[in-house]
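Z., the sequence and structure:
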Amino acid sequence: MTKRNSQSDARTRLIETAERLFYAEGIRAVGIDRIIDEANVAKMTLYNHFKSKDDLVLAVLQYRDEQVNAQFEEAIGRHQANGAQPLDAFFLALSEWLNSPGFRGCSFINAAVELADSHHPGAKFAAQHKRAFREMLQRLIADAAGEKAAQMTAAISLLVEGAIVTTAVESASDAAEVAHQAAKDLLARSSRSKAEPAKTGHLKRKRVKAKG
């Protein structure tokens, strides 16, 4: 094994170990020495790759971002291949994640709360992840119900985030299903409200014509 590969393997072990420990126990609760010990590397190896714990936290969140994106892409594609519509496939994927063993909430929400500093690189990346996740949801809503329906993305995104937090706090196994039904109700109501003015206008034109 070359020195470069060895360094790359050590960096990967550090990130994967830190990600596992941070998610299970919290960023603040897990110290550098614990990560070094469980990753089986020397302290100097860690500091060769990361100048500080904050740098490691950011690397862990970037790694987790890749995992989450791949996880949802795979699950949504699988459910669509089985006949689910785009938005339905998303909520099925969400339900799978929320009910997976060891689920302890969203790494990005957890990090933002623990870091308690919106200027921290990790907190900034967490916010960036949430924006990208919302954009993915917007595309799925547009694919499922049209571009106008995508105006409901902000509201549906709040339902999704609420389902994540509710599952983490209350161990609610049906949170994704409740959010899914509420999202469908919102889209249906939005569709009706957009259709009604046009219908009313049509009736008024008919009445005017009849009078004339």
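Confidence is low (pLDDT under 50) at residues 198-206, 208-212. The chain has nine helices and no strands.

Let me know what you think.
H.
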